[in-house]
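Limitations
The structure tokens in this dataset are predictions for the assembled complex, not deposited experimental models. Users should treat interface geometry with appropriate caution, especially where small molecules or nucleic acid strands are included. An illustrative entry is reproduced here so readers can see what is and is not provided.
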Amino acid sequence: MSEPAKRKRTLRAWRGDASGGKFEEYTVEVDQGMVVLDLVHRAQRDAEGAGDMACRWNCKAGKCGSCSMEINGKPKLACMTRLGDYAPDEVIQVQPLKTFPIIRDLTTDVSWNYEQNKKIAPFTPPPRPEGDYRMKQKDVDRIQEFRKCIECFLCQDTCHVLRDHDKKAPATQPAGKPPQGFIGPRFMIRVAQLDMHPLDTVDRIPKLKEEWGSGYCNITKCCTEVCPEHINITDNGIIPMKERVVDRFYDPITMLLSKLGGGSKRTVQK
Amino acid sequence: MALDISELQTITHDVIVVGAGGAGLRAAIECSRQGLDTGVVCKSLLGKAHTVMAEGGAAAALGNADSRDNWKVHFRDTMRGGKFLNQWRMAELHAKEAPERIRELEEWGAVFDRTADGRINQRNFGGHRFPRLAHVGDRTGLELIRTLQDKGVHSGISVHMECTGLGLMMDGGRVAGMVGYWRETGRFVVFRAKAVIFATGGFGKAWKITSNSWEYTGDGQRMAYDVGAELMDMEFTQFHPTGMVWPPSVAGVLVTEGVRGEGGILRNKDGKRFMFEYIPEKFAAETADTEEEALRWLQGDRDARRPPELLTRDEVARSIYNEVKMGRGSPHGGAFLDISHRPADYVKKKLPSMYHQFKELAEVDITKEPMEVGPTFHYAMGGLAVDHDSQMCPKVPGLFACGEVAAGLHGANRLGGNSLSDLLVFGRRAGMGAKEFIDANPGLPKVDEARVKQLIDQAKEPLMRPDGENPYVLHDDLRESMTRNVGIWRDAEGMSQGIADIAKFRERLKNVKAHGTSQYNPGWSEAIDLHSMFVAAEATARSGLMREESRGAHSREDFQGERKEWIKYNIVCFKGDDGEMVVQKVERQSGPAELEKIANASIEDVEAGRV
Amino acid sequence: MANASTGGHVQGLGATMRKDAWWQGPALTAGILSLWLVYYAFAAAQGKYYSAGPYISPFYIAYEHPASVTDMSPGYAWFGFWPDSWPAFFPPALVMGALPGMFRMTCYYYRKAYYRSFFGMPPGCAVGPVPHDYRGETFLLVFQNLHRYTLYIAIALLPLLYLDAIKGLWYDGRPGIGLGTVLLGANAVLLTGYTLGCHAWRHLVGGKLNCFSCDGASEARHGLWGRVTWLNERHQQFAWSSLIMIAICDIYIRSVSMGVIPDINTWSGVTWIGDFH
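Predicted assembly:
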């Protein structure tokens, strides 16, 4: 089996930092089956002036979610985007995520996401019974889908609430005010995963509506479109959570029934 | 340029944990539970550590999937898999404590696949007598790290992300902290602590074909070695039998052993199921010898023996390598791994990320076609020698090691699934060990200013040079040499060549130039990391050269087969007074009589509880 | 605080670094929805030609003008005739259309479709939205939260569609079937698929439970939830196919009624509108 002749490919990468920057072009040799991350690495090694091009990566197998960037304008994992998906002479343009502050070149400061996670009360089961906790596979199928999340934050990047309107949930929520921002799709499914857990005992629904801004999502589904783990973020995570909010805050019938039934059995997160 | 230490950022904790994979996070959680002010320093973002790559599961004798399982069977499997070079006590602790660590993980939010009666499900894996691996599809490592990450950030540990360690400071014979630099700014930072826990993982990035990520450069091994710690069992580097071989850019990416656990079959280019030819004598009694029996096993016949695809990793990796060498390999130099005889929906449910990985990276639909696989550098059994109960490095008081960076549990070959449980069991023990040490040594050690200066100056060298060699090219040369000379089959000539190459590479490193500034500069990081890779690679080659036998993952073409006299020794490397690496044989202590009895008993006796 | 650095990104409505034809999807959506609405307005305003033989247009469910009632007409006015005093500028078909219309307007799928294609909130993924003080569905659009009540109406209307289709199996005192019957039947099935694939429905039948295996009732609801999930995964397909099918039914019946085309049936083969009576 003969290998095809060495081909060249041009990488158009945004180079710069918080004070500004511009696109630079690097043309390097490529091999069969390469992904965009390989192209970045090839440029770092072989192209003049690209040796210090900042780019996060770890596993190079779509499992860690480090190499998130915008490739030809689309939020993607560089390690899972094959050069073969583009026309042979097409320039590959890479940019840092738009939604987060730029550190340098292709890296952004995603610490806001880690702050959101801290706001969400952790899993709190009842004390372990004699023997083991029991849950059926059918009880965990839903939440296992959300736990596939690799925290690449591509959904956060593409969510227009965060990306274009910059309504990122602030560190503190002023009392009595409507929610000041949104925690984003990644943490909607984090909350969904906890809320749908058969063993959990914390009620996060009031927080979700009042502080984490579930109402900001207008379900335009871009988060689901970009998810490299193919998690059905909108249909299986966000919308069910929105419906749970409706049960508690908008639907007079379910609100009445809940009141008659003594309200949520879970402890409300303060 | 003068450096004013007082202007350096200094962060103080009771204990710092270096590395935020499974072991580091479990250690940090334990420290925090013990009331210690705990800082975690990690090279990448939190949650990206190499643990996410673990696919198959965590081995623990819960006995959920097969009630005949218990710690003794697990212990026996581990010792046999490790060719009896494991540290007895560690293998015992591991087998005994793993089930509780898994249950604890579930209590913290891990959502494992379930058995029909609602308990944690377990799957089959190479070398494990019973289905023993608690798992979540083929992304168990991600589940583990996400669970520990959430538990950790809500237990009040401080996480210092994207910070790389440069070296340790000592004070009066005990560890005083670590100097590092922030990747984002390139600024240096001094971490002061009463104890340091290393959970820095392995060093596969010194090899060309590897399943390891860029972080796996042996930083912990090198930093500890520099201050006098011993590296043990470094010759035992596990080549996982199934890495991707095509396309070239993904060569080495892991294909989980879970594929074989779920019934995957290995064939050569002639369609022959070749593993039946490679069953070693000592596993013959427990391995199926016909396709018919292997099929019955897969269908759940408890009396059938396990298919030969589920032999230990060293055996399977060598067999594939052999098939390729004999000209019976697949088109791209591997073997065919076929799971397509199982229902497509089942494959997608149980091996979802394998399905996507092959679909997206190789355009192969594994529910319809076989995969092409070949051996890939996967894991270092060797690492820092530690006390078996506390995980402290005996030569460096206050320094603890757990997970892949520590040696001892796995001996000459690690069983799949024993790594994730290793992280949990010994991560916790390192945390407890650190607490004990700090209780006995409560003072905060002093900063060694000269050492800090030395480390910072050395780190800055590649940036300060006006011009010089390309660090990426030097790294590629190292990887090329290691894969060629210290690969899956080794001989004296190759390993000597590897050692000579490393000496030359060290000289070249003195002339490496990192272009650009110190701010988030991967070229500079590469230049710094090379120091660590050289130490780990040299220790592997030197230990390998000394061990004149083939045992477990260490296969010598010039010394085939296990040699009785070598079971008595572990090999350690340490830094000599002249700065050169010293290699020594260390006589092993025999195990406690009870453990020896279990390890050597027949499987029937262990199952029947007669030992 | 102004950030000097854009990372090479662009701002503003429709601004993007994407190189693909991202606008095709929303443009197609906007085009088809607009066409549909224009046709619907025309059909509703026309006020006649809504029935032919045993068929009635789905735009006119439960509607029948007293003047058009004959011995042969099947009687569609399930709830009686529309009052004579009803104002002409607000045709009954618009009223009957508004009920399922509200269901579609608050539907989670259509929200995506029209927020993108009509309102540019955003027009596409990683494409700049209409610049405005975005408040999502927390403020003016908070009514979207009552989607489930429109679902109840839509479910209540489903039997009427089946009844109308079943009526199409009987004419001239004997059983039979025509192309119109087939279309009306298909329409009822597609609308059922769309309605019962609703996200709110999926929540109500079982999605709201946290434990599916805890008792017999939750086990049963899990089964139901699974079937609704199957439909829900195809909600977009059902949304479009049912929408287009309604229009096709109306176009067909209207065309037969206006004498543009004949109906094909088992009663008398090729039947022009004049032959129905």
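Some entries come with short summary sentences. For this one: The two ends of chain B are 67 Å apart (CA to CA).
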